[in-house]
Design brief:
124 residues, mainly alpha, 0% strand
């Protein structure tokens, strides 16, 4: 893989993470404490991801698995719209590495189920 293709891949991942943080803040601005915690979770996950890519001597595939696990855990703990972004990442087969898609696909299989009554109340 050339330098420029790796650069494109990593900047895409960084852009997705930034979009998640921005959308999460806008979506949940009525709950300041939750928004602050969500951003802190994402910054922590992003920092751990950067350290993995910078200092780990594992293969790139192993780095992808470890880094995507941190991102998945942050998205899962934040819940709501963040889960949807994780599910979106799982479907981006053209841009996102297979390891990320595999790890993020657990967000579609293991997400909490809402009752019909709670969905109906939210819509009304």
């Amino acid at each position: 893989m050339t330098y420029y293709s790796r650069l494109l891949k990593y900047t895409t991942i960084a852009s997705i993470a930034t979009g998640i943080a921005t959308a999460g803040l806008g979506y949940q601005q009525y709950e300041y404490n939750h928004s602050f915690k969500a951003v802190c979770n994402l910054v922590y996950a992003g920092t751990r991801m950067a350290l993995i890519y910078k200092f780990s001597e594992d293969t790139i595939e192993s780095k992808h698995i470890k880094a995507s696990s941190f991102l998945r855990d942050a998205l899962k703990s934040n819940g709501g719209i963040f889960l949807k972004f994780g599910q979106l990442i799982a479907t981006l087969d053209v841009i996102v590495p297979d390891e990320y898609r595999f790890v993020m696909s657990t967000l579609t299989r293991e997400c909490a189920v809402s009752s019909f009554d709670s969905v109906k109340r939210a819509i009304e």
